[in-house]
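Case study 2.
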Amino acid sequence: MTAKDIRWVQRAHNFEKAYLRLKEAMEMEELNELERNGLIQRFEFTIDLAWKVMKDFLEHQGFDFKPSPKETFRLAQQSDFIDYAQELIDGLDIRNELSHDYSGEKFETLEQQLRDETYPALGKLYRFYASQGGSHQPKQSHG
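Prediction:
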């Protein structure tokens, strides 16, 4: 394994941990303010790792590009690795909105989009990384 191989796989393992923690928070019902803040932080960690792993993965695949979060997801879709780049890009926008939400009002307006679009896209990305060898989870048989 080269350093680039190891880098994307190590980051994928970190993404896996972040995603599973986000999943735990997303499955909770009737969040109080502290739990909501925790969910937001877990979401921010997960979406940040999502694009960084993809950047490393694409570089491992031989792509040479100037990485920005949105461009990374667009390139992944243009290269047929994923087909849900817009949901992830919208997730980056949600992250940016929530990082400046000190009253909790923005979360209330963005929560449904996060739950209905961004979170499922992060789940697809989690499964994609696992299918590429970037997971500690055993591969499931489809039989």
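Residues 84 and 124 are 8 Å apart (CA to CA).
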